[in-house]
């Protein structure tokens, strides 16, 4: 029940706050550590592998150790700290708000939409049409359901389950696991580019870590859209997506909403469909929000049932 309370704390903070200011966000602090790795090295793969192994582990130890220490003093303090840690490793409300703003601007203020898209998708928006901007917003929102929410919630459940199985306290390990996954994902987002050899180990680690959350997110989206067959439909479009994981939630969104989602020159999902209009894109973002609520609910059920 303590772990379920921690999930409730995280969900409540997400609903009430959304996301702390960047200057106060521990993920941004961790990003500064990662930034120190982002330079030229004589042996970039060795340095990158060491960083990918040690930096997320260090974060997990700090978070898990803090929760364990709090538990020795006051169990409810440990719950609050674990809930805060889980909240800081997830993002939903801010993602949805940003996406809705970009989609609205795509119809009313195209330059503003192009500028706003930079906060969602790492692509050059200067030549994108309104429909392509809406497509990018839907793609990014769907992908970030996995990266920004489901991955940490799943790690929380799996970490606590493993801890329980080996006779350890579930809450510290669960919180530490969520922090570890967020650290891995942050390293990939900062370093995981082909031009940065030092980031290759983090990118490969993130591919492995995100395998399950991406597919869980696709299932959640299918449920939220009332379209269980959309996951199966998405499979046929995924070969062109460079990432082994991100195509699953994006393709499921394309199938469920019956729209074409396209990154020009890279991939097309549901090529028979049309680019999303404003109403369809906004509805897709809302469905991602419903999938996020489902993720919180199922996480709470999971920790009650298994811990």
TrEMBL record:
Principal subcellular localization: membrane
GO cellular component: plasma membrane
Annotated membrane topology: Multi-pass membrane protein
Residues annotated as transmembrane: 45-69, 76-96, 153-181, 288-306
GO MF entry, a single one: ABC-type vitamin B12 transporter activity
Keywords, comma-separated and alphabetical: Cell membrane, Cobalamin biosynthesis, Membrane, Transmembrane, Transmembrane helix
Localization of this protein: Cell membrane
Pfam families recorded: CobD_Cbib (PF03186)
GO BP, sorted A to Z: cobalamin biosynthetic process
Superkingdom assignment: Archaea
UniProt keyword annotation of Transmembrane helix present: yes
Pathway listed: Cofactor biosynthesis; adenosylcobalamin biosynthesis
Function: Converts cobyric acid to cobinamide by the addition of aminopropanol on the F carboxylic group.
Family stated for the protein in its record: Belongs to the CobD/CbiB family.
Name recorded for this polypeptide: Probable cobalamin biosynthesis protein CobD
Species of provenance: Haloarcula japonica (strain ATCC 49778 / DSM 6131 / JCM 7785 / NBRC 101032 / NCIMB 13157 / TR-1)
């Amino acid at each position: 029940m303590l772990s379920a309370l921690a999930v409730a704390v995280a969900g409540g903070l997400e609903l009430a706050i959304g996301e702390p200011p960047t200057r106060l966000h521990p993920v941004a602090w961790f990003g500064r550590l990662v930034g120190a790795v982002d330079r030229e090295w004589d042996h970039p793969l060795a340095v990158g592998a060491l960083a990918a192994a040690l930096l997320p582990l260090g974060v997990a130890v700090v978070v898990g150790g803090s929760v364990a220490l709090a538990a020795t003093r006051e169990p409810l303090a440990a719950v609050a700290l674990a809930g805060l840690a889980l909240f800081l490793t997830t993002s939903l409300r801010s993602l949805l708000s940003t996406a809705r703003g970009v989609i609205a601007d795509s119809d009313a203020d195209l330059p503003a939409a192009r500028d706003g898209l930079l906060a969602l998708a790492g692509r050059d928006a200067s030549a994108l049409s309104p429909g392509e901007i809406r497509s990018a917003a839907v793609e990014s929102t769907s992908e970030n359901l996995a990266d920004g929410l489901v991955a940490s919630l799943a790690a929380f459940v799996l970490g606590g389950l493993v801890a329980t199985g080996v006779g350890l306290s579930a809450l510290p390990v669960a919180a530490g696991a969520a922090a570890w996954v967020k650290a891995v994902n942050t390293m990939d987002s900062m370093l995981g580019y082909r031009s940065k050899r030092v980031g290759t180990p983090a990118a490969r680690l993130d591919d492995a870590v995100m395998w399950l959350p991406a597919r869980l997110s696709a299932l959640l989206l299918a449920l939220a859209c009332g379209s269980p067959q959309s996951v199966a439909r998405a499979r046929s479009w995924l070969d062109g997506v460079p990432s082994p994981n991100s195509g699953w939630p994006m393709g499921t969104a394309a199938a469920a909403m019956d729209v074409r989602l396209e990154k020009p020159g890279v991939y097309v999902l549901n090529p028979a469909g049309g680019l999303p209009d404003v109403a369809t894109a906004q509805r897709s973002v809302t469905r991602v929000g419903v999938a996020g609520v489902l993720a919180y609910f199922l996480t709470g059920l999971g920790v009650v049932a298994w811990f």
